[in-house]
Amino acid sequence: MSDFDDLIRASLRDHTPAALPDEALAGRAAATGRRIRRARIAGGAALAIVTVLGVAWGSTVLPGRAQQNIAATPSPVSPTSVQPTPSESATSGPTPTEPTFSSGGTVRDVSLVGARAGYPESEEYLENFFASPSSNFLCTLSTVGARCTGTWNKGVEPPRTMCDDGVVEGVQVEGTKPAAWFCGSDAQSFPFLNDEGGDGVDWWDATFGESIPWPMDPSVQLAVLPYGKTLVAGDFRCSMAKAGVTCTNTRTGAGFLTSRAKVDFKA
């Protein structure tokens, strides 16, 4: 017998009046003890089964669900590298353009236009050409100076002997030097509108300039600076008047006025 049965029997003895033992009662007590033990065992077995089933379920069912959950979760996507959109053709800077002259007016700045020249040899600059309305003078203006060639009345020109090489070509004011006659043997100004390219007459248009046939070749038109008009290139400017052509270095004040009748130099 177990301790539990002994406990039941002791309890019955303590509470049972002195009499002959009731075999039936003893059997019932023994049956009750057995039922209690079976209930305890059944409970333990059930708990064990539940535990075993739980372990089995966890090892079989739960991994499947975990895998389903993992499959349902979007896998990380590596960021797509965005390729920059090619820009339109790049430029290193704005394309240089020639100045646009406004229509009309009496003064035009030609510092940035003209025919490319290299005199003196150490410099490079742009020359602009123009003729007087009488066609007697053909002139050149640039940022390094101004000069005019032409025909003068007798006695106005200096003696040809002043030139060691060539002849007296005309008058000039260049750099910071005083205005003076200059010598040479080549043409100096080319104010031809219908010459090939018309180089050096970009300043000209019908709202500012005039044109006349060149006496040497009437098929060629001269780019004329009219009376009352002025061209400017850097410190130098040339103005046309009925009294003649005046070209001046505005920084030093040196310059000349030339006409067929006279030549005046300004220091």
Q: What's the number of domains?
A: 2
Question: What count of helical segments does DSSP give?
Answer: 2
**Strand proportion:** 25-35%
User: What is the general shape?
Assistant: elongated
Poorly predicted runs of 5 or more residues: 18-96
End-to-end CA span: 151 Å
Q: Classify the helix fraction into a percent range.
A: 10-25%
In what order do the strands lie side by side in the largest sheet? 1-10-11-12-13-14
The helix-strand sequence is HHEEEEEEEEEEEEEE
Query: Which structural category fits the helices and strands?
Result: alpha+beta
Mean pLDDT: 74
Q: Nearest-angstrom radius of gyration?
A: 60 Å
Q: What's the count of strands? A: 14
Sheet having the most strands: 6 strands, mixed
Describe this structure in words.
22% of the residues are buried. β13 and β14 (263-266) form a beta hairpin. The chain has helices at 3-15, 23-72; strands spanning 107-109, 115-117, 125-131, 137-142, 145-150, 167-174, 180-184, 210-214, 217-224, 230-233, 236-241, 244-249, 255-258, 263-266. The strands form three sheets. Strands 1-10-11-12-13-14 form a six-stranded mixed beta sheet, with no helix packed on it. The chain contains two helices and 14 strands, in the order ααββββββββββββββ. The protein is α+β, with helices and mostly antiparallel strands. It has two domains: 3-69; 107-266, no CATH class.
Key structural traits:
2 domains, 6-stranded antiparallel sheet, single chain, 6-stranded mixed sheet, alpha+beta, 267 residues
The gist of it:
This protein has 267 residues and is of the alpha+beta class.
